[in-house]
Amino acid sequence: MDLKYVVPKVRETFGNLEFASEKSVEHERGTNTKVVSRTYNLFSDKQRADEIEVTIPATAGDKKQTLKIEDRVKLVNPRVVAIGYRIGEQAFTRYNCYADDVVKL
What we know:
- By secondary structure, this protein is mainly beta.
- It contains two helices and seven strands; from the N terminus they run αβββαββββ.
- The protein has one domain (10-104): CATH 2.40.50.390.
- InterPro entries: DUF961, YdcP-like_sf.
């Protein structure tokens, strides 16, 4: 069985989401630098220990231009990908959240 991604129940998993900040921008390498995706931090009233990081494609636009801190937002077509890695003799799992867009409520 090939596990490509998990579609979370956003309301139950993350609760209410608010825009926090832009975390990073991924560029395509080459002669013409082009933005491929942007990762944003979101506040969650259920996941309080850390901010939720969500990566969206560059085609969705730059959200720091249209959203303000603490604007309530929702994820469009969210999915969570589990990525396994090891450090020395220990194994770890990192979960990345991807969406098609982040829109203001």
